[in-house]
Task: structure prediction
Amino acid sequence: MAGERDLRRLLAGLRPELDPDEYVFTTVPGDRIPPGLAPVVTVAEPEGLTLVLRRTEAERAGLPHDYTAGRIVLRVHSALDAVGLTAAVAAELAAAGLSCNVVAGFHHDHLFVPHERAREALDLLRALAARSGDPS
Result:
């Protein structure tokens, strides 16, 4: 099923949802996920495998980390070749001084923002959707 490509409809239909868990970025050598870990994102880099996983899971495994993030899922089904969604969301958050690490899944975009400001980011994204025509 193809995702939405129209930027106005994407923004109006963001339906951001805040995950209650805390997430961290860490790295392990090589290209294999250590047993017992269930990362929500992996990125293979020459320096090692980046894992994004729940903070409790990383700490239980003794993995170092220095950034704790909140995870916001944009429930709109965006097409992978849609133009402008990431830029619009990042601009909205940047205007408030919020960093944002975006990961595109097949169906949804996942935003990792500073955990202590995740609720603020959620409110900003809801306001963006409302300005873009979201009826809710």
Q: What stands out?
A: The helical segments are 7-12, 55-60, 85-95, 118-131. The beta strands are 16-28, 41-45, 48-54, 68-74, 101-104, 109-114.
